[in-house]
Amino acid sequence: MSFIKGIELCRRFHIEIVEPVMTDSYPFLSYSSALIGPGSEVLGYDTEMSTDHDWVPRVYLFLNQPDIGYSELIQSTLQERAPERFYGFPVDIGRSVITTVPRFIESYLAVSKIEELEPVDWLTFPSQSLLEITRGEVYRDDNGQLSTLRKRFAYYPHDIWLYLMASSWQRIGQEEHLMHRSGLIGDELGSAIIASRLVRDIINLCFLMERQYAPYPKWFGTAFKRLKCSDQILPYLWTAQTAVTWREREYALNNAYKHLSHMHNGLKITEKIPDEVSYFFDRPFKVMSGGDIACLIANQIVDTDIRQLSKKRLIGNIDQITDNTDFRNMNKWSEGEGVYARKALKKLFKPGL
Fold it and tell me: Are 157 and 201 in contact (CB under 8 A)?
């Protein structure tokens, strides 16, 4: 059995199994078929190792709401027609989900109607979830609902994008000098930990500057290597990550900051920021003054609520608030809990609170 990338395997599964079943038995139904949702194969990062669990030929099958009653019949027919193995891989029809676009979004983002989304809602969506909606591949889309959905969530609205970049610079500004201070008093372990946090924030900022959703930790570095800026910045970040002295970390991070400033100025969203780092007050180390850059970006926000929020608290989105996997996956909580939790989280971003 030779390995086949998941996107290609699922395309074949759609063409050779799903589509014939729908054509022969349910020609009166319009539908969409796609590989989206969870799984390394959706992001295109799957390897032969990925096949050891939860990796089978599958699709998401989307019906119109009036036709959802056919889902059990369709699944039964697929079960009858599908072989036990497909291109050498085991078939589990139960892994192919039959749903509607609204149901999918409610189960994925814990929202009921995307037409009623407010800008602040975007701050409650993990970037990994947005990736899983917009990556993968659509194999068929009769009524265009799925393509419309993916276009709607292709990337953050402009003011949310600005707010997230400002929040990222704010995080850098709050800790960039602490790495040096810890090292100066002989705490190289503490300095290294802070440097790792800064490396993570810099990478997040790179994703934002290139208007790409960042994946969860397993593929964070892999996806970063595919960004346009990675060739120039990655060597400095790796040095900062592996250095044994705080001065080495300072040199590496300061060079990374210079590249970030060039990238920022290339966006032309604010007045130009300095290309060089500067001393932190009278202390013997240099920083980028991320907080100042955060303010420049926040001042460009037009939306009233997001602008007020930026003035009150530049805390970013759910990804910047917590890295707790179970909390980020609130959409997978029991029915109703996810929606309730997301609404509670949304209150944190309401500027009036």
Answer: no
